[in-house]
Design a protein that fits this description.
Number of strands: 0
Distance between the termini: 117 Å
Order of helices and strands: H
Shape: elongated
Oligomer: single chain
Length: about 70
């Protein structure tokens, strides 16, 4: 009669990898929330006033072409 032999040599090592991948997924989800939801910190609307009025700049004068 044959003996029932189980050769289970693997397993157990993937638990650490699953934990690391799970932690990375959670961190990416938190970063995505702050990127796409506008942060959510520091409530209220901010006044952004940007002045883009520049002084008028004229091109240098070009000498007249020589007639000849």
């Amino acid at each position: 009669m044959a003996d029932n032999i189980n050769n289970n040599t693997g397993g157990g090592g993937n638990a650490g990898m699953a934990f690391i991948i799970g932690a990375v997924v959670v961190v990416l989800a938190i970063v995505a929330y702050f990127v796409f939801a506008g942060g959510g910190l520091g409530g209220g609307e901010k006044d952004v006033n940007v002045d883009v009025d520049l002084p008028e700049v004229s091109a240098p004068s070009v000498p007249a072409p020589a007639e000849g």
